[in-house]
Amino acid sequence: MWQRSYRSASEGRSDRSWPFPALAYVRRPVYCAHVTAETAMHTPETARPRFRTIAFLSSPITEADTARRRLEARYGGVDPDTAEVIVALGGDGFMLQVLHRFMNTGKPIYGMNRGSVGFLMNEFSEDGLIERLNEAAVAVVHPLVMTATDSEGRVHEALALNEVSLLRQTYQAAKLRVLIDGKVRLEELVCDGLLVATPAGSTAYNLSAHGPIIPINAPLLALTPISPFRPRRWRGALLPNEATIEIEILEADKRPVNAVADHVEIRSVRRVSVRESKDCEAIMLFDPGHNLDERILAEQFGY
């Protein structure tokens, strides 16, 4: 089972508190027990709901917390550890935290937007929640595994559902060498940064950096530069999701770079490896006609 903990190299202690702890590991691999979407779903039976127990979680903002209290009063609520489905109330950032928290538990997450963008969320309504849950479409996403070596030689691992990004730490541009499956593809990339995005994350930071939007079921990853200077005409690449991407930081002392997996940041890295996990998965639920496939498709025709 994937462990949600942080271990200090000097103290050797684990902090298992939540809200979502820092997923920085020192020489400890990320393990995930495989729980499929099929085993997570209950077979519907006549005269009973698909999901019998619901846990409601909300972000700290007042609008989300108020919605949680009203929904709990109307539909009841149980502890998340015993619930069959989780209803997350907030924005995309909170949804990512909840998806990370329940990664590989087999618990599907149904988000309702009480934040700003809400790309990963369904529309909020207090009415008909049981029916919406019963009719929801399932989307299963696999995270990226980032393995980063910092300037002191410590190795950190973290999971990312949206993207892994490398970002310059100072006023000077980063210099990076890019290898795909062990073969050098870019000897030197001068840029503000570089990111590897999943299909689910291709409409987030990747899109802002002019990267391609990827259909949710496409077996692809986007490798997208951030403000590239040299080579000037390189705009990124689409890679098979079986690929392992390695980035070496050149002139690391002069041009320090940070590595970020969703909301976990490792400072002053020297080398980063990124691959898609085949053993870990997060399960999301979407209203019919507004699933992740449709949202990603519609995003390509927006202005």
Morphology call: elongated
Query: What does the largest sheet look like?
Result: 6 strands, antiparallel
> What is the average per-residue confidence, as pLDDT, rounded to a whole number?
85
Could you give the count of β-strands? 17
Proportion of strand residues:
25-35%
Give descriptors for this structure.
17 strands; 33% strand; 303 residues; alpha+beta; 16% helix; 6 helices; six-stranded antiparallel sheet
Task: Give the helices and strands, then pairings.
Blueprint: H1 37-40, E1 54-58, H2 62-75, E2 85-90, H3 92-101, E3 109-113, H4 129-135, E4 137-141, E5 144-150, E6 155-160, E7 163-168, E8 174-180, E9 183-191, E10 193-197, H5 205-208, E11 220-226, E12 237-240, E13 245-250, E14 257-261, E15 264-266, E16 269-276, E17 282-286, H6 292-299
Parallel strand pairs: 1-2, 2-3, 3-17
Antiparallel strand pairs: 4-17, 5-6, 5-16, 7-10, 7-14, 8-9, 8-13, 10-11, 11-12, 13-16, 14-15
